[in-house]
Specification:
Blueprint: E1 11-12, H1 15-24, E2 30-31, E3 35-39, E4 45-50, E5 53-58, E6 62-66, E7 71-76, E8 79-84, E9 87-90, E10 95-103, E11 109-114, E12 130-132, E13 146-153, E14 156-161, E15 175-179, E16 192-195, E17 201-203, E18 206-207, E19 215-218, E20 224-226, E21 229-230, E22 254-257, E23 264-266, E24 269-271, E25 278-283, E26 285-291, E27 294-298, E28 310-314, E29 320-332, H2 337-343, H3 350-353, E30 363-368, E31 378-382, E32 391-393, E33 396-398, E34 405-407, E35 412-415, E36 418-420, E37 427-429, E38 437-438, E39 442-447, E40 450-454, E41 459-461, E42 476-482, E43 485-489, E44 494-497, E45 499-505, E46 533-536, E47 539-542
Parallel strand pairs: 1-3, 2-5, 3-6, 4-7, 5-8, 6-9, 7-16, 8-17, 9-18, 16-19, 17-20, 18-21, 19-22, 20-23, 21-24, 22-25, 23-32, 24-33, 25-34, 32-35, 33-36, 34-37, 35-39, 36-40, 37-41, 39-42, 40-43, 41-44, 42-45, 44-46, 45-47
Antiparallel strand pairs: 10-11, 10-15, 11-14, 12-15, 13-14, 25-38, 26-27, 26-31, 27-30, 28-29, 28-31, 29-30
Length: 550
């Protein structure tokens, strides 16, 4: 038998210097010669495009092999810039991979042997642990939380789960993956981050690994992602011959925060990542009190409300008030001991409850154009910065541990997409008080999509107040779910709550109906268990189902 041909690990190349020199010389478009290039990071970033305008950078046939597990590409303060054809990978990888070779009787302790040519045990971190079946190479179960990661030797780990029992699904022989790090120069999160930029186009950009998100944008305006890909690398093109990869990257594929005009995802692919395929959102800030037109507000982190902004207002019980306009915003006293004590038992992420890293610590007075009556725990968000106007079209997403799409924006369309094998819901439309991620959705069209092989519901539109209860109708408005196809999806296939003017029409369900979903089951009234479509606290424009929550 002929020996396996040697793979090309790439050659060292100063990609940053090459592009900088071309831009300085006025070259446009900038064309990089095809090849596999090993790139060293500077200040924790392998390539930075900053302050550029009206430029095309053509990297068709170019692979950038990042030599540390830190950010591959930063795009900042750019306008009308197109980046085309770049492939991003890592050596060493930001995760390591192996097999379960031993289990304690209660299955809380996993003995793992790592495969050759993956990062060694010392590089593993307590993050993003996933378990896959060896036969299908698909997820065996949800993502367990780990209490401890112990290095046994160079090729073996002992992992202790935070909870679980002997009935858990994992088995000896299962494939596992866990985050790993090698960043002696310091680590910045995400493979591609675009910040503060307008009308950037990423075209045919592929990402095969990331320490966190594949593509993150913050405070951007009308970014287009055309045929971009976040997927596990095929073994035949891998840098070395080894056990095939079972993950693409450690977290979300496409994540958009605070976009003035939402992103356009066109013919994109995102599969086998460690979290959501798409998340489009803004920030809620927490209202701690107020009188008349003036509210006392704790900023989630940085304050992004400005005078003149229209703002979404949601009471602690989930009631959505009519939008208002910010007249003025002023610095105020930081969080008080009383406010900090109120936060600690709330139903939100621990980092928010404990003010970790300064979250919910800085106070503001926000003056509105009208008086409102909102109790402590209500929230406020700028409608200018939550990704409204997004487009998701002809995309393929799935085989991930979380949602196919998580949408918290308005005036958007989700059309002609395929979502397969997402562990938690194909499409979820929902603000999240838990993370203080805004917002509620209006004027949303979900049509022509195929959703299959999801162990939970196919489409969920929901709103849950800070008090943990289903919000009344009006949190979401004018939602159309029309002409979608469902196959091998748990019941209900469509679950909607808290929506005014809901249209459900011409959706196609399988003749063989599955078992009820455990995820979101508490939202389904007892007399609607097993129904294919459930609507709770909804008013319909054109709908076959209506229910009222107790």
């Amino acid at each position: 038998m002929a020996a396996e041909p040697a793979r090309d690990p790439g050659r060292d190349f100063d990609l940053q210097g090459f592009i900088d020199a071309a831009v300085k010389n006025g070259t446009n478009p900038v064309r990089v010669e095809p090849g596999r290039y090993r790139v060293k990071p500077r200040l924790s970033q392998h390539l930075v495009l900053r302050g550029l305008a009206n430029l095309v950078i053509d990297c068709t046939g170019v692979e950038m092999i990042c030599t540390e597990t830190t950010r591959a590409l930063s795009i900042a303060d750019c306008e009308n810039v197109t980046l085309r054809g770049l492939t991003i990978d890592y050596d060493p990888l930001p995760f390591t991979q192996g097999r379960i070779t031993g289990l304690s009787p209660d299955k809380r302790v996993h003995e793992v042997t790592l495969f050759d040519d993956y990062p060694r045990a010392q590089a593993a971190t307590n993050s993003k642990y996933e378990i896959f079946r060896p036969d299908t190479r698909l997820l065996r179960r949800d993502c367990p939380q780990l209490e401890a990661v112990e290095v046994v030797d160079d090729s073996r780990l002992r992992l202790t789960k935070a909870d679980g029992g002997s009935g858990d699904a994992e088995e000896i022989g299962d494939l596992v993956v866990i985050a790993a790090t090698h960043a002696p120069g310091g680590s910045a999160a995400h493979a591609v981050e675009c910040h503060g930029s307008r009308q950037v186009v990423l075209e045919d950009v592929s990402v095969y690994a990331s320490n966190c998100f594949g593509f993150l944008e913050t405070d951007c305006d009308a970014t287009t992602y055309r045929r971009c890909r976040y997927d596990r690398r095929p073994p035949e093109t891998d840098l070395v011959v080894r056990e095939p990869r079972i993950r693409s990257g450690n977290a979300d594929a496409f994540h958009s925060k605070h976009a003035a005009v939402g992103p356009r995802y066109l013919e994109c692919v995102a599969r086998f990542m460690g979290d959501d395929a798409v998340n489009i959102c803004g920030d809620y800030h927490l209202i701690m009190g107020g009188e008349g037109r003036t509210l006392r507000v704790l900023a989630k982190h940085g304050m992004n409300l400005h005078a003149g902004d229209a703002v979404e207002l949601v009471a602690f019980d989930g009631r959505r008030l009519p939008d208002a306009v910010v007249v003025d915003i002023r610095d105020a006293a930081p969080i008080s001991p009383d406010e900090a004590a109120w936060l600690k038992p709330q139903r939100m992420d621990e980092r928010l409850r404990t003010n970790a890293g300064g979250l919910l610590s800085k106070g503001y007075e926000v003056e509105l154009d009208r008086a409102v009556d909102l109790p402590r725990g209500s929230v406020i968000a700028s409608t200018r910065a939550m990704g409204n106007g997004f487009v998701i079209d002809r995309c393929t997403f799935g085989f991930n541990r979380s949602r196919g799409m998580l949408i918290k924006a308005s005036h958007g369309t989700i059309t002609n997409c395929t979502l397969q094998g997402s562990w938690i819901v194909g499409i979820l439309v929902s603000p999240e008080w838990w993370w203080l991620e805004s917002g509620s959705s209006s004027d949303l069209v979900i049509t022509g999509n195929s959703i299959l092989d999801c162990p939970t519901s196919g489409i969920i539109v929901q709103a849950i107040g800070g008090n943990g209860r289903v919000a009344p109708a009006g949190a979401h408005k004018n939602i159309s779910i029309v002409g979608n196809t469902f196959s091998n999806v748990a019941l209900p296939f469509i679950l909607c709550t808290s929506t005014e003017d809901l249209t459900l029409k011409d959706n196609r369900f399988p003749a063989e109906q599955g078992v009820p979903s455990a995820w979101g089951a508490e939202l389904v009234p007892a007399d609607k268990k097993g129904a294919p479509v459930v609507a709770v606290n909804c008013t319909e424009a054109e709908s076959p189902a209506r229910e009222t929550a107790p």
